[in-house]
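Entry for the shared binder. Reason: the reviewer on the internal report wants the predicted structure included alongside the sequence.
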Amino acid sequence: MQMGMSQVDLAILLPSFAAAWNLASGQTMFAAQKDSGCVYLSPDGLFAVEAPAGWELRKQEGSNEVTFLNGQVSVSVAAAETEAGDTVDQFLEVNKSLVRHMCPAADVWAEGKATVAGASGAYFTMFCPGPRTRTIVRVSAALSHKRLFIFKIAVPSAELYTVQATIDRMAHSFSECDGLPQGRKRRQRAN
């Protein structure tokens, strides 16, 4: 099933902000668990990323998106099938609009080229001065093999220094995988 850009944008960006800005009012939008600090492989086998020890892991229903949380720090990764004509620039522009919708005073701090899951892509970084906390949002994406690979962070500016090395390790470890063979499902471990 192909997922258009606007569906991908909403499916990935909004839960990331809800977690980072604590907008969920105590309700969880995902199934949560603590991670052991190993490599996370998406259920469909399309990507892998280093999962930081002690960070909470939340998977979005009906998607391969995974969000890693440490307090108000949020890192989300995903891969989505694209449709003919979809571009990284379109995806990033939609995400800038979503950030501005959620935080009208948000400013673009930087944008340019980025490597995402081993592919050449682009990114933007925005700063939101509130309403609850000063937050830095960075969205990076790249197209590879008709898939969009997405790496997003939302972090309170006061905490960026303490988590930057962990976020960098995750970004560098984010990699494209071959996926599961047609019709195959991942084996479940016995409890």
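Summary line for the report: Residues 79 and 149 are 4 Å apart (CA to CA).
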